[in-house]
Amino acid sequence: MPAIRSHFHEELDxxxxxxxxxxxLAERSVGRAVEALARNDRDEVEAVVxxxxxIDARYLSVEQRIVELLALQTPVASDLRLITSMLHVxxxxxxxxxxxxxxxxxxxxxxxxxxxxxxxxxxxEMSDVVxxxxxxxxxxxxTRDLDLCLRLPAMDDPVDRLNLGMYKxxxxxxxxxDALNWGLRMILIARQLERVGDHAVDIGEQIGFLLTGExxxxxxxxxxxxxxxxxx
Amino acid sequence: MERDGSMxxxxxxxxxxxxxxxxxxPDGARVRxxxxxxxxxxxxxxxxxxxxxxxxxxxxxxxxxxTAIIGPSGCGKSTLVRCLNRMHEEVRGAxxxxxxxxxxxxxxxxxxxxxxxxxxxxxxxQRPNPFPTMSVLDNAVAGLKLVGGLSRxxxxxxxxWALRAAGLWEEVKDRLHEPGARLSGGQQQRLCIAxxxxxxxxxxxxDEPASALDPASTLRIxxxxxxxxxxxxxxxxTHNMQQAARVSDWTLFMLYGEVVEFGPTSKLFTRPDDQRxxxxxxxxxx
Lengths: 232, 286
Known about the structure:
The complex is a heterodimer of chains A (232) and B (286).
Chain A: H1 6-39, H2 42-73, H3 77-108, H4 117-143, H5 146-150, H6 152-171, H7 177-212
Chain B: H1 5-8, E1 39-48, E2 51-61, E3 66-70, H2 77-83, E4 94-102, E5 105-106, H3 114-120, E6 121-124, H4 136-140, H5 142-147, H6 152-165, H7 169-172, H8 185-198, E7 203-207, H9 215-228, E8 233-237, H10 241-247, E9 250-255, E10 258-264, H11 265-268, H12 275-281
Parallel strand pairs in B: 3-8, 3-9, 6-7, 7-8
Antiparallel strand pairs in B: 1-2, 1-4, 4-5, 9-10
């Protein structure tokens, strides 16, 4: 029998491509923000802040188009799951873009302060984990790969540990007011990267819903330990 | 043909019985002194001459719930629903094999009177078909008049009850003696629903009841269906998938005379089990 909603499905495909592109932009923005910090690079800081406009514009466009599809096309079944997943993933990516901006703006405020190579390496290590997490989540979306989604909580574990370890490292700077001032900002930046990891896990949960029709939290913020999806 | 006593003498809800409804069941479910209205279809096949319109249909329709039947044109939706009250056999050359158990009794058993079955399992059709010159009130009680045995005042009372049950009373209470044909299309369809309800059925079969109506009238019919399921088993055939999603508790998807999938409407429209259902409801074929 003939396909009868080809226009609608073409629009769904176009939205998916836009969201995948947004994923690349958001991931790159996080990387550039951490690089600006590592290199103490003011121009790169400003480039990250300015670059967020494109992510925001894409976010608004995707959201508007999704609302129109919901209103006009009354999607059901896998189409409905895809649309609601994209609505959430879109917001998570926009928030990741905002976190890159927060990192850049925090960096802007401490460009003239003394830094710690060890702590910068610590931040870089976090970035080196959360950026692949974003890529993994988006690849799971692109390829509809549930196993890939389920890897995200384990990938997030070291991010949480690194974030907690940051407090101890910054406390060691207590003897130098300028260094401590810089270090306190590093706690904020580590926190942003930790949140980026959480958003990547949340994206994975949305892909899980898209693929299975059941929404399950991969991790539970109200409990100190991770719950695996199978443990419910 | 000998009538079966348990079928013809079974408890039929009277208008006054409405007052006797209670919510005494532990789970708060409504109960009444009438069968549950469950329908069990077993190995049902139907033909128009040599054309096999239904193929080995098996399903259980829950009483006092709305079941929607969807599927592309020619899939057997209307044939199935017409088999549920023995209307199919009225077509020349049509025949049925298999069983339709209504509250546990096969409506195709040789001792069952099809006329009585059609009273207990009423039907509303696609196009409103009131008797055009008959008054609104007489239309509502037309079926009762055929049965006979009721006084004018009883007929008036039952007519008012049926018109109220069909959500039409407030609009026509001052026009009861006008011809039914003067009502709007949506009102005429609700008048036909009143006519079906007046004979106190247990099941209401609706074959595309809103497809000839404007959007506002369609929504009124859909609201009415929601109210009717409190008292009746409702089976509705519809081409409009969104209508099925809005009004039904259960949805049956048919293709080429076969049942492809039958399940809770919320599941069928969010994560159907069968790829053919998925493709149909998402418009990947039609």
